[in-house]
């Protein structure tokens, strides 16, 4: 009941268990029903203001109520004015109202001059229920109340630090630095440090996620795109601990999350606002829709923010479940355990207060092919007491983005299936399929029809063939499809005798459910006027406008059925219909030829009706009530009514909005649902090579008169597993040609399931004379023969197909180890499924003149992939020639020397060494050259140099107070000739050189635009990109009380000189970093700062155990500088003598190498391969060896 709900919310707000918003205290129930009072205290020492909130009609709570908010007569005028202008309070709960009032009054804090910022009637919540159509702010200031930073520091009455206090800002920086150190890019928009409305964005390049190229194409993302998680804090930044303390009503107004993609690592302010702006979707409001372009949209602006293909389901999932899951994570569960325990609570009635069963603590075994970035888990870090919410949110988002095919897109439970797919789908619950289709979580069928019409034609043709042969296993259950009536016996009576004899065995008792009797209505039909008349008029009209019917004409001729929509019933017993769709399902099933006509006649009003006898049946048969055979037949009948792809293209081109659901007179709701199901349930990546809308891909040579499609199946990491197997076998057998190619053919009715389940050998269609496995032929004609085979019943062709497919065969790439196959003569029988990767699908077409399909010319590829001469497969015109661009394993024939696998003649691309990450798809890191971090996003990571006191009373900082001492570092003053550096590396690798030059370019640009970075690199002095000299300086900007600051001042030392040397396989092995000068005390001598005896740095980051190939040198330098300043602090050695400036002896390269090895042995860290050869081949400044 509404009043009961209001009382419960009010009591909960009054209880101590519910933390109140900043400044709110003393909540009491008022004198009137629906009234409550509370006090607002801006700061300790101020006078509390009494505020009253009143709901005139409590019976409307919490869905349609209004609030009246006012304060006492003695309240300050600016507070009374602010409360009079509060907006967005309608339909808000008690908790949400308190948050809004707290945020509104908090904006009135004094600024630098003690003036008050008056409330702006334009400034309020992003989502205003009072003005849904005016959701976009006119400018940035209205969105975020941008002003100078508040310098008044005071704790709130509940004892928590005020949002403008140093502790609050330090926590924000801690959380953002943790996210940055995890190799993500961070950014912020708005007044984040002021505790006002702001956005935090966390982003990562798609190329770093280990996703195959085929998966990127299927997911509509580009390797250079950034995947961006935008976190909105409407009422100021909230920590992980604060968010976990909120219940659902309090959480919604304090947190929002959206997953997007862009070419830039951060969105603009207006783009971020659009991401959270709810839009009206045609005839309804879709709470998951926003103003951003879709994943499939052709974005005109190169850097525009857009949704990803999975944004819609994932946004709601993040919003609803992330924080509850984090509560379970804090109890020691991993992500999988937390998700399973949440499902246990929500579905089986378990209580969140119950003891968590031990089975939920079993650790999840993640696929080895996942990059370290994707497998990262902030909660698994040891020694932490507080955790960064932005980092946890991004890691959770990556878990469900990169592994989207492992989870249901609706309920998000992990799928318990062995089927591997390249596109995500739903579980086997009918409710999930229904929501997947109706909520728009699936792919845009309109986009598919416009961009790849022949792929849509192919999918519909495969489904039709499978249904006609009664081979369908999965059906569109849960979509509430009402279909034309099905009479299976009447259908079989139309088939030739030989086909009636191959009917299936008698149905079981369960399958013998007969559909209810569908009533026939006898009518007169006027084909010219498109009208029906009821001669025997029922009491009520049995149909209504929009109903679909099947009209059968009573003639001696066996005329095809007419499917049509009822256009009007206002003149009942005469009703008007739309132009009928004329189809002949029996003819198409027996002859495979289309039977489709559409006529239009002009009729004058004076024309006398010409009624011909007919009868009709309504579309009111429940699809789910049919048995298997009847479902297959009904699918064929519905597919008969769907227009061909060119006709659908024409409609979408000429009409707006571009949506087939508005073509009501041509496509029935049941047919549209079936069309969406066929396209959405396809879990393979099929890309047109031929056709007028292709992307300019090269054709394979040797398959004349066949339409070609690029074809990939399996999980997103299937390509990675395949290349790993190729690498392993090629190394073991010392192969010159790591892979071979062969053909796989199957009857047309099998392809509908093949593209959903992938290749396997669970079913036996043609025997297994040569053992268990996937059968491959060396000749295309052999596989084509199997594709055209059928078992006594015509496979059937979709009547409206433009392709008219008669056979389909796939070209697969296989590991070149025939001796280890189940059989190699006369067929390749391969039982190792990870040894097979599909590459092409070839379709034999029989187009008509109306089809006018475009098949490319037979030209040999310019850049052909080298094949094993002894095992080259043959097409229809001799040996095939494959374009190299189609084959990912070509890297084995193009790799350079110096890789880690010495036994291979053409070893795979070098990756991270002994750390265990064996991902053959390289994770790129082009951020540094193409998208430098903005200055404001770097500055927020640095802690404040002047520490602000936190006291009980308000304190205004004196503007004349002492400021941090300016730096005494002078760039370019270092004499490089005095440095005992290591010999310049003589090796080089194109990949490493390219990466290092990008790093140098980024660092040079960064230090030219950002002052006081704390490090300096003299780029003109670098003569070899594999050897750098870095100076660290200005540690007083981190903390002026650091011992290293006073030590450097006493010895008149202005910088710490580091030498960094890179190996030829960088970034897959870490850089070697050592201190040259000055000398430091070891840990045993009272020193620290991660600098050990010999000048080496004791950091796991700089070993193979902790290094990540996606780390940038910008982040490495920042972490080294912070490590030197960390506890226990670094201390300089005061013994004199030596080279250089005379203030101490420099570190030699040999002692630095010894110190590095000692540190690795002490901690069990892995030393990079070939590191010793690099580190001990050293000389002094005069060229003499020091070893």
TrEMBL record:
Residues 109-132, 895-931 are annotated as: Disordered. InterPro entries: ARTD_PARP, Poly(ADP-ribose)pol_cat_dom, UBC, UBQ-conjugating_enzyme/RWD. Keywords: Glycosyltransferase, NAD, Nucleotidyltransferase, Transferase. Residues 991-1166 form the UBC core domain. The keyword Transcription regulation does not apply. Residues 122-132 have a biased composition (Acidic residues). One of its GO terms (molecular function) is nucleotidyltransferase activity. Pfam families: PARP (PF00644). It comes from the Eukaryota. The keyword Nucleotidyltransferase applies. Gene3D superfamilies: 3.90.228.10, Ubiquitin Conjugating Enzyme. PANTHER family: POLY ADP-RIBOSE POLYMERASE FAMILY, MEMBER PARP (PTHR21328). This is UBC core domain-containing protein. It comes from Meristemomyces frigidus.
């Amino acid at each position: 009941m509404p009043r009961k709900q209001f009382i419960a919310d009010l009591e909960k707000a009054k209880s101590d268990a519910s933390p109140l918003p900043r400044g709110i205290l003393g909540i009491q129930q008022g004198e009137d029903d629906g009234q409550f009072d509370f006090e607002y205290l801006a700061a300790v020492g101020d006078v509390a203001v009494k505020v009253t909130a009143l709901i005139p009609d409590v019976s409307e709570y919490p869905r349609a109520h209004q609030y009246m908010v006012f304060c006492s007569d003695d309240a300050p005028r600016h507070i009374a004015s602010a409360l009079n202008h509060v907006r967005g309070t309608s339909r808000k709960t008690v908790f949400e109202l308190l948050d809004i009032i707290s945020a509104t009054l908090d904006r009135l804090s004094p600024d630098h001059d003690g003036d008050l910022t008056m409330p702006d009637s334009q400034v309020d919540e992003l989502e205003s229920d009072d003005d849904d159509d005016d959701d976009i702010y006119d400018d940035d200031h209205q969105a975020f109340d941008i002003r100078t930073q508040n310098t008044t520091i005071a704790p709130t009455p509940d004892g928590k630090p005020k949002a403008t206090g140093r502790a609050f800002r330090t926590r924000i920086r801690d959380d953002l630095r943790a996210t940055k150190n995890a190799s993500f890019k961070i950014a912020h928009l708005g007044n984040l440090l002021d505790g006002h409305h702001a956005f935090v964005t966390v982003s990562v390049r798609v190329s770093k996620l280990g996703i195959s190229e085929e998966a990127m194409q299927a997911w509509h993302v580009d390797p250079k795109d950034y995947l961006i998680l935008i976190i909105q804090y409407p009422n100021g930044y909230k920590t992980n601990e604060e968010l976990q303390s909120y219940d659902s009503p309090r959480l919604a107004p304090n947190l929002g999350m959206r997953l997007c993609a862009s070419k830039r690592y951060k969105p603009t302010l207006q783009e971020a606002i659009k991401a959270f702006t709810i839009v009206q979707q045609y005839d309804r409001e879709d709470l998951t829709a926003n103003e951003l372009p879709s994943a499939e949209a052709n974005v005109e602006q190169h850097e525009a923010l857009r949704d990803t293909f999975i944004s819609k389901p994932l946004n709601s999932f993040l919003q609803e479940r992330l924080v509850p899951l984090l509560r379970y994570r804090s109890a020691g569960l991993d992500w999988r355990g937390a998700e399973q325990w949440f499902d246990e609570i929500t579905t089986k009635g378990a209580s969140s207060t119950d003891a968590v069963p031990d089975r939920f603590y079993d650790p999840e075994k993640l696929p080895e092919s996942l990059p370290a970035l994707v497998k990262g888990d902030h909660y698994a870090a040891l020694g932490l007491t507080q955790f960064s919410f932005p980092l946890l949110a991004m890691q959770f988002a990556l878990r469900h983005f990169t592994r989207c095919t492992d989870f249901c897109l609706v309920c998000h439970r992990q799928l318990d299936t062995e089927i591997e797919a390249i596109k995500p789908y739903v579980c086997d619950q009918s409710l999930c399929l229904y929501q997947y289709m109706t909520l728009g979580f699936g792919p845009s069928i309109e986009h598919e029809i416009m961009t790849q019409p022949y792929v849509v034609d192919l999918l519909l043709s495969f489904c039709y063939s499978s249904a006609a042969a009664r081979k369908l296993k999965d059906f569109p259950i849960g979509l509430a499809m009402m279909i034309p009536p099905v009479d299976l016996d009447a259908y079989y009576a139309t088939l030739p005798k030989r086909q009636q004899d191959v009917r299936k065995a008698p149905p079981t008792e369960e399958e013998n459910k007969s559909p209810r009797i569908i009533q026939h209505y006898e009518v007169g039909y006027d084909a010219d006027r498109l009208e029906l008349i009821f001669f025997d008029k029922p009491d009520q009209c049995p149909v209504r406008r929009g109903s679909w019917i099947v009209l059968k004409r009573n003639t001696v001729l066996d005329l095809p059925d007419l499917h049509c929509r009822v256009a009007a019933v206002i003149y009942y017993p005469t009703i008007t219909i739309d132009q009928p769709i004329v189809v002949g399902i029996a003819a198409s099933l027996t002859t495979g030829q289309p039977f489709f006509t559409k006529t239009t006649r002009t009729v004058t009003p004076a024309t006398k009706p010409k009624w011909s006898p007919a009868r009709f049946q309504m579309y009111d048969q429940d699809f789910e009530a049919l048995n298997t055979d009847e479902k297959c037949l009904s699918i064929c009948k519905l597919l008969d009514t769907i227009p061909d792809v060119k006709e659908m293209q024409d409609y979408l081109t000429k009409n707006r909005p571009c949506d087939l659901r508005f073509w009501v007179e041509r496509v029935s709701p049941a047919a549209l649902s079936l069309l969406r199901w066929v396209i959405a349930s396809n879990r393979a990546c099929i890309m047109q090579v031929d056709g007028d809308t292709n992307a300019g891909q090269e054709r394979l040579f040797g398959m004349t008169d066949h339409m070609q499609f690029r074809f990939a199946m399996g999980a997103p990491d299937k390509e990675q597993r395949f290349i790993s197997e190729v690498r392993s076998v090629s190394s073991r057998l010392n192969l010159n040609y790591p892979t071979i190619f062969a053909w796989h053919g199957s009857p047309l009715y099998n392809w509908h399931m093949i593209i959903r389940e992938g290749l396997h050998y669970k079913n036996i269609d043609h025997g297994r004379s040569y053992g268990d496995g996937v059968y491959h032929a060396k000749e295309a004609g052999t596989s084509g023969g199997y594709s055209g085979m059928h078992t006594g019943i015509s496979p059937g062709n979709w009547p409206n197909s433009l392709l008219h497919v008669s056979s389909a065969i796939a070209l697969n790439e296989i590991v070149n180890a025939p001796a280890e196959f189940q059989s190699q003569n006369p067929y390749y029988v391969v039982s190792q499924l990870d040894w097979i990767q599909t590459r092409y699908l070839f379709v034999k077409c029989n187009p008509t003149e109306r089809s006018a399909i475009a098949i490319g010319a037979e030209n040999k590829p310019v850049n052909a992939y080298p094949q094993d001469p002894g095992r080259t497969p043959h097409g229809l015109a001799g040996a095939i020639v494959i374009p190299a661009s189609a084959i990912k394993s070509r890297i084995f024939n193009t790799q350079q020397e110096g890789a880690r696998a010495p036994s291979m003649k053409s070893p795979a691309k070098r990756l991270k060494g002994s750390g265990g990450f064996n991902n053959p798809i390289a994770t790129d890191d082009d951020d540094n050259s193409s998208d430098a971090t903005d200055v404001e996003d770097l500055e927020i990571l640095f802690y404040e140099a002047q520490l602000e006191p936190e006291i009980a009373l308000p304190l205004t900082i004196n503007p004349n107070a002492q400021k941090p001492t300016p730096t005494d570092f002078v760039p370019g003053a270092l004499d490089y000739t005095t440095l005992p550096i290591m010999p310049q590396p003589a090796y080089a690798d194109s990949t490493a050189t390219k990466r290092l030059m990008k790093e140098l370019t980024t660092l040079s640009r960064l230090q030219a635009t950002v002052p006081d970075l704390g490090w300096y690199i003299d780029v003109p002095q670098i003569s070899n990109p594999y050897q750098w000299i870095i100076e660290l300086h200005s540690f007083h900007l981190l903390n002026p009380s650091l011992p290293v600051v006073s030590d450097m001042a006493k010895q008149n030392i202005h910088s710490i000189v580091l030498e960094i040397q890179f190996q030829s396989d960088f970034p897959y092995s870490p850089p070697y970093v050592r201190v040259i000068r000055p000398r430091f005390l070891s840990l045993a001598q009272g020193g620290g700062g991660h600098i050990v005896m010999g000048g080496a740095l004791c950091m796991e980051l700089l070993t193979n155990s902790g290094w990540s190939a996606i780390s940038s040198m910008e982040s490495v330098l920042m972490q080294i500088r912070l490590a030197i300043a960390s506890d226990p602090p670094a201390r300089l050695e005061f013994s004199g003598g030596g080279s250089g400036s005379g203030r101490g002896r420099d570190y030699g390269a040999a002692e630095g190498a010894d110190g590095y090895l000692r540190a690795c042995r002490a901690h069990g860290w892995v030393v990079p391969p070939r590191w010793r050869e690099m580190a001990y081949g050293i000389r002094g400044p005069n060229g003499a060896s020091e070893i």
